[in-house]
Design brief:
The chain is an alpha/beta fold. The chain contains 40 helices and 20 strands.
Amino acid sequence: MDPWIGQIEGTLSSPASDSVHTLRPSEIKVVAMMGAALTATEGTRQLASISKDPNPTTQSSFPDILKSFNPDLVGYSPGSRNFDSSLDQSALNGKAEDLPGQALKLVKSLKNKSHIDFQRDWKLITVYIGVADLCAYCTNKEYYSPENVVFRIKEALDILYQEVPRAFVNVVEMQNIDSVLQCHDPGLLTHEPRNICECLVKLHNSGELSVHNISRIYRNALQELVYSGIYEKRKDYTVVLQPFLGNLEFPLTANGKADLRYLSPDGLRFSVRSRSLLARGLWNNMLEPVGQKNAILKLSPTAPQLRCPTQERPYLFTYQNSDYGLTSPTEARQSYGKECGSEVTCIDREPSITVPTSVHQLRPADIKVIAALGDSLTAGNGAGAKPNDLIGVITQFRGLSWSIGGDNSISTVTTLTNILREFNPLLFGYSSGVGNEGTPQSFLNRAIAGAVTGDLMGQVRKLLKLMKNDSRINFQEDWKIITLFIGGNDLCDYCKNTPNFSPDNFIKNIQEALDTLHSEVPRAFVNLVTILNIVPLRELFTDTRLKCPQILLKLLCKCVVSPPNNSTQLSELQALNLEYQKRTHLLVESGRYDSREDFTVVIQPFLENTKLPRDKNGMPDKTYFAPDCFHFNVKAHSQVARGLWKNLLEPVGWKTTGLSLDNPISIACPSKDYPYLKTYRNSNSEQKSPVTTEKMKTTGEPSQVYGSELLCKDKAPSDVIPKSVHSLRPADVKVIGAVGDSLTAGNGIGSKPNDVLDVLTQYRGLSFSIGGDGSLKTTTTLPNILREFNSNLTGFSTGKGNLESPNVFLNQAFPGALVGDLAGQVRRLVDIMKNNSKIDFQNDWKIINLFIGGNDLCNYCTDSAYFSAINFAKRIEEALDILHNEVQRVFVNLIEVLQLIPLRRLYQDQKMSCPRALMRMLCYCVVKPSENSPELEMMSEANRAYQHTTRMLVESGKYNTREDFTVVLQPFFHHMEIPMLENGHPDTSFFAPDCFHLSRKFHSQVARSLWNNMLQPVGEKSNFQDVTKNISLSCPSQDQPFLRTFKNSNYTYQGAVPTVKPPGNWGSDLSCSENLPSETVPTSVHRIRPADVQVIAALGDSISVGFGARAKNLFQLKTQYQGVSWSIGGDKTLETVTTLPNILKKFNPNIYGFSSGIGKRKSKFNVAVPGSKANDMSDQARTLIQLMKNSSQINFEKDWKVITLFIGANDLCDYCMNKETYSADNYVKHIQEALDILQKEVPRAFVNIMQLLEMNGIRRIKKNTIGCALLQKNICPCFLKMQDNSPELNEMLRVNREYQTKLTTLIYSGKYDASETFTVVLQPYFTNTIIPLNIMGLPDLDFFSVDCFHLSERGQAEMAIGLWNNMLEPVGHKQNYNNFTYSRNKLKCPNSDSPYLFTHKNSKGVTPEEPEATSEPKVNQRVWVAVLIAIAGVLVGATFVLVVAKLRFHKCRRCGEKPLEMDTVKA
């Protein structure tokens, strides 16, 4: 026995620890191992020449060392009295795939051994990571990738973490790979058989692969796993990385070579003589603090000295007890610098004269106690970590936390605490220094790293206990500010347990915490900071240039970073993120927490739309993040603190919702007039919120507002039941039904002012078209009017309830419904009518009201194809067809889509108390566009188009073929004005608390308008809704006592829409004032005007040669109509042929290089070749250069050239046949090679590179011709032969997006922006291009050639228009879609302020003339697709559609009504 043990045990004895961070060696009762067997066993696995351990007197195994501390240790060392071989689960050449099974066997063994107290005994488990996975890497690079190997290791560690209490787990890094390489030295090996590492060594020796690089990646991945902190959440469990095998130091033989007798012959394991060295190396590592561990094992006959625990540190070292990152706190604090400190310049810092009794009169200086709840962002994980120090992320720098930290002062560290201490230096409760929530210095910072909303109540209870029991806090009298920020981990884990992290559970957990604070904490101001938009953080993962720890990011937030771009999973995540935010607003804005004078909860939304900070190159700025690229560092914490403070002083409704981390934020001061922290109540008083005064009298009896009087004398039915709908009197109607959305379902009709949550309630009995509550004297609805004629009317809904409630009866509308849901509603309605005993389905006359469209409009900007006016009318037609085919004796009111645009007034008037953030979520497409913007005009046109196509459907006369059925358009909503008060503000008394749904007063007016419309002749109906007017109910006339139809109105419908004669050509018109060249020939590519361009050229495939563009049959398909090619054709003039050269001829008639005519004879500088792929581009580039140099028509050195490159369709179409050759990496590599050649060889060039399309949409293009049915699939088999929703098709979609993403990364890398005479600009208009639709909503084949794949001349013209317009749009503001609508006037002119072709450099600081389709950055467009799908906004019920509605809609889209996206052509 070594003398190092001596008398240590006596000094180390103490009560058993319950924390792994104070675990002493003597407390370990069980030692076990798993993983790879690192040593050869006795006999067969040892070297023949070495039979004995050279150090027989020393502890030759790891358990032997531990037995020196605890003789009763249970372990795997032979000869021990408590020997148990089942505790050694290691395997020869063990791989990561073996680890989970080993872990399960080990757990079973530990549980079943009678001599082990599984719950109470401390266990030491060592996991050895061998080199077998690394050696197998060359056999299957995907399966043995570092990421997949580490995930298998994680699976095993997860099993131990979940199953084993009281465990200290060592993870021993794989040995240095050099040992394997040295054992494969031909001079050292003679007769030994080759082993599993042979192929890897061969590749390394040949130079094809660097084993050291691969080994380093494996090590980094393992380090990221352990350093992630996911195993540091229990105080009785830890995982520690022991790196002592990272470098092996061999003794030298007599001839100066490494003595390899310490290894097995293959170098994969150690020999028996190394056993003691390994045991001692591991032991010594365990007694070295993290960050100071030895990473070298010296292989020598002399065993290293064993370390002893010290009296100061008598325990095994973990990340927490190593004080890692705290070796020089002073130095760290001083390094924060000016960017982390702030200056408070407020003059008035005094508290109130007397302690306020109302939270609405609370000044900053009145606050005495500060507290916080949340997760690792509030705990301060990694806030003070040094760059690249992943272990430092585990450290919780609570003193730097934005909302509660109190380290230093405001001059060096900006936190809410340090700001408030400028007003009250005696502020109490803040955290300081480092440590977890259990350390004294965390104080009232109860945040826990890794917490989800389900953990909030535990934090709240602990906070209450601390505040109540601390003698320094006057719990009843002291004013407290409590900040709650949580939800990121819920999003990060949602895909692992979707029900647990549903929006319902998310808000339930937050509500429970707030309810507890509300009921138990006096004098409190609670900041509820809404969850940030976490999706943009994905860029830190996807942008490989940032070198962020990708595997660690996957471990921390797999559900956010793993989904592919544009995937359903990502859409669901984005929808969930927004739903979390929406539900938070609804909870607080309900007024639930404003029932006491001394308590309030205020939403602070400054992180809701926060964008990634970026450096000067436009890349995400990593200096704001901890080394894991996920948590905030002190720089970001300081900015977030400033953002929170700014929100605190901003009135509710005016609060900043998008903090710019990379912009300076000064510390604001309370205003002199309103020096209080802003609450919902004092914000209203400050903004002088208008008092509602109604034009209709609202005092006295409700009937004066909601009820009506019907003065009709003749209320009798027909003498005999009419057979014709054109002779139908009101009293003849016996049944009433309705379909639609939340306006018909009655959401929020009876809600009290400011009770936003109550808008969820469906007041079906008050619905204008189908409600039957009360009577006409108290409630004006269409059923109550009709009951004045027929008291036996049935079908109306009453009371409150959802679609499942029996009282809804024939009201089949539901909140959030889209027009695509109508058919389902109608089928349910028909089934109920057929099967209800109260209804004589064959003989009873029925009125059915159909009103829908608001949700579709609110979604329009997200997918203008799916939500097109044609599709809208087609889906209404589908619903009407069902009624027409199945229901007898029906009068259908088709209520025209209302004008949504006027509702923007409620959003724009910021002095109103409307929930603006909620309104943005509900109907982003309508409320967000700025005034007079193209986006707003697009929405106005869409609204009008919905109305027009609906009218045309009715005007077609399709539903007037039977005497007992008609559809009548009721247009009273065609024009609508928002009711206004005399002070110029909107009158919110007409609206529900969400300012989108309609109040009872509005519903009453709408019911009157609908009734009056029904009695007005077709062609003379009122199409204007003014709800402020006193609307009297009309009566049927004596001459015409019927509900008015086209026939009894003597109205002639227009009939079907006549066929529009196609234009004679596909030319365009263009007349620009900025059409002159520069005064002198520019020397910079960033200053060239269109008229400066002298030469034009093109590279590409069959699209660029005009393949089949004018073909009328299959025989002409292969003809190259080069003169009409979009990028290079020059036939005729722009007025008859739209191409890029013909456009440029308007600026320079002498431009040269364009192709003309048919075939190659006049192709000039069009070097495109049908069938080309990306790997052909280098040859085309060289061909083009040679043609230019040899041409006498141009000055190669001085003429400015525009070159367009478009390639990739053929690569994608053949991808499934050779995935390696046609990978995205190779695609971009070949394009880069071609661009590099052009950059090197071609002076004065502006290169357009076209983004590849998403190919999936072309699957929708079908036609019963040989060309379409046969040729199309063979042209692009990898896309067109795949089954819908198949894994193969999903892979193609993923690769398609990878092509786009990696091409974008190349062009935006700046590689081609360094020269003044050359640039490459990505023109993205094809990225999200939608396949053109005809009037039937089907793909318009006029845009395609006879093979349904290549483009016709019309399609070529549209490509030219999109390219030209992109060239005149600043980088960053380029339109990335093309809707293929026909117009001769779509071409843009150069901007007079910036008349140049736009490059990356000259786009900086330029405000685009025509903004994008949303005023948000383009990266967020897909976010809003998911948001609006999930929430289904607008006043038609979108407000409160649940995730079920979102999933239903996604399902609907997957079932066949997918948005159509225009795809590339097979070249």
